[in-house]
Amino acid sequence: MIKVEQLTKCYGPLKAVDSIDFQVSKGEIVGFLGPNGAGKSTTMKMLAGFLPPTSGRAEVAGRDVFRESLQAREHVGYLPENVPLYPDMRVNEYLRYRAAIKGVPGRRLKERVTDVIDLCGLQDVEKKIIGRLSKGYRQRVGLADAMVHEPDLLILDEPTIGLDPNQIRQVRDLIRNLKRHHTILLSTHILPEVEMLCSRVIIINKGRIEAMDSPQNLRARLGVGGEIFLDVRVTDPRTAAVGLRRIAGVDSVSMRADGSWTIFTIQAGAGADPREALYEYAVAEKWPLRELSRSPVSLEQVFAEVTHSEEI
Amino acid sequence: MRRFLTLLGRELGSAFHQPLAYVVLFFFLLITGFNFHAGVSLLNRAAGSTTIVEAFFNTVYFWFPFVLVFPLITMRVFAEEAKLGTLETLMTAPVRDGQVVFSKYFGALFFYLALWVPSLLYFAIFQWVTDMSAAGAVGSYLGAYSMLVLIGLFYTALGCLASALTDNQIVAAVIAFAAILSLFFLGLLSLFLPGAGPLVREVTYYFSPIQHMMDFSRGIFDTRPVVFYISSTLLVLFATFHVFKYRRWKS
Q1: Is residue B220's pLDDT more than 60?
Q2: Contact status, residue A29 vs residue A2, Cβ threshold 8 Å
Q3: Domains of chain A (ranges plus CATH)?
Q4: At A36, is the secondary structure helix, strand, or coil?
Q5: What order of strands is seen across the sheet that includes strand A250-258?
Q6: Using a CB-CB distance cutoff of 8 angstroms, which residues of chain B are in contact with residue A100?
Q7: Does A279 touch chain B (CB under 8 A)?
Q8: What is the mean pLDDT, run by run of 10 residues, along chain A of 312 residues?
């Protein structure tokens, strides 16, 4: 659906996007992840046909976004970062206008507008003036506009920015529902969002792609065993710690008393998961066990790892 | 074509859906109404050879709102979209740059022409009340109103160009006002330089709206201003199109 080859965009001497390559196939939800100023928005603007690339090329639905811009744009629904809308128009009026300039035929106009109004939960504000809407509703009007012409590809630039947690959940649910009919490229710097929505993640930093994989693989690739918590009641914590340290896959052990209980924090070695051995050890020692758990490696760590190493 | 009409509809909607439109309309009507009144009382005092149409289109009360109104109409067209960021949604829809530029131009032009519609009533009422002809002949109406359209074509284009140059409506208005005013006064150059001779008068005639209106409102038709206004309009629109394209690519 998207094919990007050596795409570069310079603003004067500054390289905002530096020869990136990637592909997105039909039906995928791809998350574009990166710190502010990494080049996410610039890449998306180029894909949406708003900015011409300095060099390289990009294709959307088999059409070159620069040479066949008009045909490419027909296949794209784009939601810009700050959701620009005409404040003087009414919601349904705006959507009808947008559908018409995007080439929805007259006989289907009404049906399409009603559909997106239902889908985005805009029934209550349908006749309101856009300038008077709350941020959450404006965001939804933007989303409705992006998909009113049933594009194959949706490009959403930070679709949940500036919303309250409730609204974020609603927008996320909406995006999840769209997955069935659209290919989606969305950018965000909220990591849990990517883990929840995306089948693939592209991490971009300083205009270059740093990593590109599924969230699961990225997590595995970091290869950290992580921290394991073992909450047991032992008579002598010191000797217990020495015993724990001998178990294969355990790097280091620290402990903390919690009444008569002791919580051991165990650092596991790279790629190791000593939880089973720890359980068997506790059973053999006849320690009453309250908790044995591993803190999950989040994308947050992957992200910090990937973008940080570059900066230093 | 359908897309162009949709865009044009939006332009007209936004032109009339803002308070500024009615402020402009109100004061414009007020001043032209006063101008008409002044014309009638002038003819009452000194019966001369001029008609009320000639008197109406050749006074300072006519020219003052006339040059002032273009920046007010056109400052919005591109600058507002750039400021709101809606240029991004607009230009990622499958519309051509040319369609956008033309729809904005014709939207502004339509508003300008709408301003003059009530003035037709003045003459109709004059004829109805006084039972006298407001113009010497039909050609006088045709000439005056076609000159209104011709100058309007050119000055609206200038205003659109100014608006395409900036994100700031005030800056756009100032640029348009300066451009229109300097063109306007360039036409009066022969008045300021009495010793300038026939060459200056000959040259400045080409872009003196006052001279053009004086001739046309008498029903004298001259092809030179027609060619001048139409070709200048096309040139300025061409520049607007390229400025619009260039600024988008640079953003």
Answers
A1: yes
A2: no
A3: 2-221 (3.40.50.300), 224-296 (3.30.70.1340)
A4: coil
A5: A250-258, A261-268, A227-232, A289-294
A6: 2-3, 6
A7: no
A8: 90 87 90 85 91 90 89 92 91 94 91 91 92 90 92 90 81 82 86 81 87 79 70 87 85 86 84 83 89 74 66 41
Cβ neighbors of B3 (< 8 A, separation 6 or more) are: A100, A101, A103, B94, B95, B99
pTM: 0.84
Alpha-carbon torsion angle A279, A285, A289, A291, nearest 10: -40
Q: Contact at 8 Å (CB) between B76 and B164?
A: no
- Could B249 and A52 be called an inter-chain contact, meaning their C-beta atoms sit closer than 8 Å? yes
**Cα separation, B109 vs B158, whole angstroms:** 11
Give the C-alpha separation, B115 to B104, whole Å.
17
Which residues in chain A are contacts of B3 at CB distance < 8 A? 100-101, 103
Task: Please name which of A124, A172, A173, A115 lies closest in space to residue A145, comparing C-alpha atoms.
Answer: A115
Answer yes or no: is the ipTM higher than 0.90: no
B175-199 confidence digits (pLDDT tens):
999 999 998 888 877 777 777 777 7
Nearest-CA distance B92 → chain A (Å): 6
B199 burial class (0-12, 13-18, 19+ CB within 10 angstroms)? exposed
Contact call for B96 and A70, based on CB within 8 A: yes
Residue A5: in which H helix or E strand, if any? Answer: strand A2-11
Query: What is the per-residue pLDDT for B137?
Result: 79
Nearest CA in chain B to A49: B92
CB A238 within 8 A of CB A244: no
Query: Residue B91: which of A50, A71, A98 has the nearest Cβ?
Result: A50
Q: Which two tokens stand for residue B237?
A: 């629109």
Inter-chain contact B84–A52, Cβ cutoff 8 Å? no
Which residue intervals of A127-164 are DSSP H helices?
Answer: 135-147
